[in-house]
Design goal:
alpha+beta; Aminopeptidase; Alpha-Beta Plaits; 2 domains; six-stranded mixed sheet; four-stranded antiparallel sheet; 14 helices; binds the ligand C[C@H](N)C(=O)N[C@@H](Cc1c[nH]cn1)C(=O)O; binds zinc ion
Length: about 475
């Protein structure tokens, strides 16, 4: 391996960090919220931004059109999948990089201290803005690596292929089909895959991640009167949709986190002694959890139990109710139609169709018991499988060496409670090892208010991605 080139690269990134931050500022300014139809043009704009950046760096860029989406009766065009190639040298390994350029919704009135789409650096050098850590910072990290090599006149040690999508936060619609179609074409030469779209466990030690939970998202709709009604006139004389909905929603999960769907825990893979050991000696404490959450509201008192419930047991979260009165003030309304939203994070060996059918059967039985004359409908709006990889693969060894070089420590090996539905598709469709190499910290507040990426994580993370390329190139793995 050319340590001279690595050192030049590391030095360049350190010295040019302000221009890296400027690139992130431009990306955060594009509110590419995939879940909000009003922002769909912005998601396209973000895709164009990346195409331009990549073309400027000499990449050969193509896009694929995933088609259209039915968004609650409205047809929306799906944003393009950006495919970019840098280098086609058959003597070099080829690394596929995946990331997403869409973000979660964010409104100042949700409780942000600053405008979510204006990147702000605070006194602790935290870069605050929607998408800073999830996933614009990490995507730009790869672009920063390429730019640094161009500026230094250095060849990249591997061939790079990018696959960047704009729908990850909304179920990755259309991407799976594209990966299967392109497996023997665009992706044919790929040796290994790297995704930077999750987080360190705590706030100080890097990690490599070899597992993700799956997710199945549900809409539960209860409908009764033709229109919203006056509660003084109609209360206690009709079946109220919201009362029915609450009755069902309150029986999905216990306040202690235990799912109430019969048979769901029978699907969960039993814990082995070998797996038990993976929860030892990790850089994580209950204090880290308190800090990330901002309060001492932990369900479990040990790190082991906390991480097992994050990584290897399912969870069910209630997200919101569409159609309900939520403004300030005291409106005495009976909403005519309400949709409760909840999701289940799935783990080995919970298969999606079984989870869906157990959930549907249970929800129907709860509704039947109410004896309500309203109508009820349960819809699974998107789902993605859990994923596990082998952390013994040379791809992980290469990443460990890169972590050691950049941070001076060996990384923790972790699993993740979140989901990146397309990860398993890459592993299965390409038959290649996938590595998750996170850039941000466990307290970054992804999906929350005041999402941030520490400047040091952005800069060191960029250094890590670049150094990892050299370790992949130097690896003896086939
Ligand atoms: C881990 C990744 N950065 C992420 O945030 N994934 C989302 C994926 C998703 C699924 N439905 C909606 N978004 C997540 O885990 O929630
Ligand atoms: Zn996300
Ligand atoms: Zn993400």
């Amino acid at each position: 391996m050319s340590t001279e080139n690595v050192d030049k690269f590391l030095d360049h990134i350190e010295k040019h960090q302000d221009s890296l931050v400027e690139r992130l500022r431009q990306a955060v300014a594009i509110p590419s919220v995939s879940g909000d139809p009003a922002h769909r043009p912005d998601v396209f704009r973000m895709g164009e931004f990346l195409v331009k950046e990549l073309k400027n760096l000499g990449a050969s860029v193509e896009t694929r059109d995933p088609g259209e989406q039915d968004f609650h009766g409205t047809t929306l065009k799906l944003p393009p999948v950006v495919l970019a190639t840098i280098g086609t040298d058959p003597a070099k390994k080829t690394l596929l990089v995946y990331g997403h350029y869409d973000v979660q919704p964010a409104l100042k009135e949700d409780g942000w201290n600053t405008d979510p789409f204006t990147l702000v650096e605070d006194e602790k050098n935290r870069l605050i803005g929607r998408g800073s850590t999830d996933d614009k910072g990490p995507i730009l990290g790869w672009i920063n690596v390429v730019e640094a090599h161009n500026k230094l006149g250095l060849e990249l040690p591997v061939n790079l292929k990018f696959c960047l999508e704009g729908m990850e936060e909304s179920g990755s619609e259309g991407l799976e089909a594209i990966i299967h179609q392109e497996a023997d074409k665009y992706f044919k030469t790929v040796d290994v895959v790297c995704i930077s779209d999750n987080y360190w466990l705590g706030t100080s030690k890097p990690c490599l991640t070899y597992g993700l939970r799956g997710v199945s998202y549900f809409h539960l709709t209860v409908e009764g009167p033709k229109a919203d009604l006056h509660s003084g006139v109609f209360g206690a004389t009709i079946h109220e949709p919201m009362t029915d909905l609450f009755a069902i929603m309150s029986q999905l999960v216990e306040p202690n986190g235990r799912l109430l769907i019969p048979g769901i825990y029978d699907l969960v893979r039993p814990l082995t002694d070998v797996e038990e050991k993976t929860y030892e000696n990790l850089d994580f404490s209950i204090q880290d959890l308190h800090d990330a959450v901002g309060n001492e509201i932990n369900l479990h008192n040990t790190v082991r139990d906390t991480l097992q419930h994050r990584w290897r047991f399912p969870s069910l979260s209630l997200h919101g109710i569409q159609g309900a009165f939520y403004n300030p003030g005291d409106k005495t309304v009976i909403p005519a139609k309400v949709t409760g939203k909840f999701s289940i994070r799935t783990v080995p060996d919970m298969e999606i169709p079984i989870v869906e059918s157990l959930t549907a059967k249970y929800v129907q039985s709860l509704f039947d018991k109410l004896g309500s004359k309203n109508t009820m409908q349960l819809k699974c709006t998107h789902s993605g499988d859990y994923w596990l990889a082998s952390p013994d693969h040379w791809n992980y060894v290469a990443a460990s060496k890169a972590v050691k070089k950049v941070f001076g420590v060996m990384p923790d090996l972790t699993r993740e409670g979140c989901s990146i539905p397309i990860t398993l598709t890459f592993q299965e469709a390409l038959g290649k090892n996938v590595l998750l190499l996170p850039m941000g910290r466990g307290d970054d507040g992804a999906h929350s208010i005041n999402e941030k990426l520490d400047r040091s994580n952005y800069v060191s993370g960029t250094k890590l991605l670049g150094t990892y390329l050299y370790e992949v190139a130097a690896s003896k793995g086939e």
